[in-house]
Amino acid sequence: MNKDLLKKLLPHLLAVVIFLIASVLLCRPAFEKDVVMNQHDLVSAKAMSHQSYTYNEKNGHFPLWSVSMFSGMPAFQIIMAGPSTPLSYIDKVFQLGLPEPANYFFLACICFYILCLCAGIKPWVGILGSLGFAFSTYNPSIISVGHVTKMLAIAYAPAVLGGVILLFRKKYLAGFVLTSLFAFLHISQNHQQITYYLLIIIAFMTVSNFIFSIREKEIGLWLKSTGLAITAGALGLIANAIILFPVYDYVKYSKRGGQLILEQGKNQAVNNKVVNNKSTGLTKEYAFQWSYGVTESMSLLFPAVNGYGAHYAQRDGDQHIFPKLDEKSNLADYLTGKLNVPEEQASNIALQYSTNVYWGDQPFLDAPFYIGAAICFLFVLSMFFLDNKYRWWLLGASAFGIMLSWGKNFPILNYFLFDYLPFYNKFRAPSMALFIPQFLFPFAGALAVEKLVSGNKEELWPKFRKSVIAMGAIFAIAAICYFSFDYTNQNKQWKTAFNQVFVSNDPALRAKLDSINQLYQPTSDNRMYLNVALQSKGDMQIANGFLTSIEKDRAKIFGKNILGALLLTVLAAGLIFLFIRNKIKTPFLLVGLSLLVYFDLFTIDSKYLNSFNFESGDTHESNAFPLTAADQAILADKDPNFRVYNATVGDPFQDSHTSWYHKSVGGYHPAKLGTYDDLITYQLSASQNMNVLNMLNTKYFIQDGANQQPKVLQNPMALGNCWFVKGVKWVKGPAEEMKAMDSFNPKDTAIIDVSFKNDAANFSAADSAEYIKQTVFDNDSIQYESKANGNRLAVFSEIFYKDWNAYIDGKKIPVIKANYVLRALAIPAGTHKVLFKFEPKVYNLSYKISNILGWLLSAMLALAAIYYLFPQMRRNKKEVNVKQ
User: Fold this and answer.
1) Which end of the chain has fewer CB atoms < 10 Å from its terminal CB, N or C?
2) CA pair distance 75, 147, nearest whole angstrom
3) b or e along 694-707 (b: 16 or more beta carbons within 10 Å of the residue's beta carbon)?
4) Closest C-alpha among 841, 606, 714 to residue 101
5) Under a CB-based contact definition with an 8 Å cutoff, are residues 91 and 108 in contact?
6) What is the mean predicted confidence (pLDDT) over 503-523?
């Protein structure tokens, strides 16, 4: 190999090796034999898709309609197979075939490294930024619970920005190819919320470039670069038509397209946009549940400002334990000294209350957004080192992301954007917007270090001093917060933990506390709550001592965070100081900063991703989906189509595990059908309306039995697959339709909106000799046979959706929506064959578009590779001949 070429490739090869080592160190258990990750949300996803995979094994293709959750929903919102093109396999190349989850960290490093190279950052500096981005604490926390599509979208995002930066640097061909390729790979992960935040970042950069193009009189070049970026992004987007277009078509009918609001007065505080009793997107109450607290944003620098979260733990042998404290906590002292709790038990309680339990504004927290103290200092440094072309858009986009994360805690901005920014009201969990600073802080830091190693040290010295002063001001603010914070704030997790520790064996006290929970919200005065609880046990003063001890421990944890961050900042600043003063060379600076960044993040990351997250592959499935005697009894039923209600899982409508074995009335999906979500809200969650469960053909109920073993109850009132009704109750609008279901007999009466009146007119009640029955069941097509002496109205225990078409003896007829969620048909007199077929036009068209564009984009990338590689090889050959 040409020595010059090898010299050019060597830094990149070493970068790959470093990324491999860094990924392997954090994910060591993944490389053991026959080990898989135990990811809660991924286990849920497996349960959602299990029936579709089983169908695929039998029929050779995935179904388009799933019957395993929510009584039926489009299966392409759960799992589907897109067209096979060369682009379908290219992501495996970037992941080097590494086992999960090492592949995610490696991919994130590689894509951020590509961004750095595109921005003109030297390879050694790019390694530093890549480690800071890939190992930010949010990444291992989402991987540990199974949010892998989110992680992949995050990983590919930097390379997309890198392609756009090349376009603005006038490297049009390379920029266009990279933007198209990585836009395709990023969008194909199907996490639109991360894509939305990436577009916000690109928009900030594009506006900044526009301003400078005016100053430099290069509007034409800006238009060219912007046009190429839009075209490249559109190519990547349209090549993913199979993913995006069906989702866009579906979202209008999903929960995210709008929710039924029967009592609008209850929602005036947040001013939901309501049209005909339907919100125009997610309700603000639902969308803004996971709003980051304003002071909680300090977790970017101090991870435990509101607690480490539910997953902060380590593994000790075969036991999952809380991290050990450096010294005995105040709460442990109090429990052992005042309540005579055994020391080991007191230590565990203290750890649970003081370190593990989250006490911020969100319902719960798996892990905080911790970017790293060293990275935060480098970001502050960048604000003084970088010129305006980079500084202001990096600062503006980062600040905007932080403000978006505040959600309901900053309503003047976020409620306005929710109402008026396109598509924004389809997303939930505003805390996810912290992806923006998670992305931009290490990028700005890498740019600052590049400026440091390439610039004039004398000119940088006063700027360095200003950055140290600015960082000192941040720590001064943190110290003020430390002394002024109220550490008593709790949430539902805290109360649950308290009940488990103190009142689990006291039914009378538990009943009393349950009544208190009905009166007070989780953020109310928890000292009162604890006073009432412990007063019932005989000593009101225990409550005050208990809470005071917790407050002291939490303050201690935050104080340690401040000191730890201060130490890391001093070390980073010290390395830079020594470099500017010519005491150390560039390699020592870059190696030192890279090790500092990695050590800083690895220390926290390993508390969220460790050996506890892995288990034997042989036992994984049986542990996740145990086959109980109740399941076996239901599976013995040879009826082809009925549904199951599982009351043993807490909330059946937040659980997908039942769907592994059964066709469930419940399930879990963040974008379930909107009509079904309304049905859950008003008929199934609170009241458990048996008439509604009967019309859904809920044949079996799984309930708690003796010895904590589930038992099965058969429902003799389940209405079966279809039936003729005697009459119709006509209603106007979704609110009337829902209210009418509070009390009705679905066997005799169908509730139908007046808009379907022409399709359901002129029928009469059936006699006992007439029938309609299901003859063939398939996910995407269901056949029935009917016999009647006159025109009848049949109701089917199948979910209504616009893409279901009905045919009687081969002739297409209108499908009627009945009982808010079901299908109904007007059946003429005589004997007929009835067929329902699921025929989603948008899906079928999108498949063809993705197939064509996938091959087109693959050919474009191949031609670009030939264009770049072969001239380079010829130049290298000529150089060798000259030297000879």
Assistant:
1) C
2) 19
3) bbbbbbbbbeeeee
4) 606
5) no
6) 47
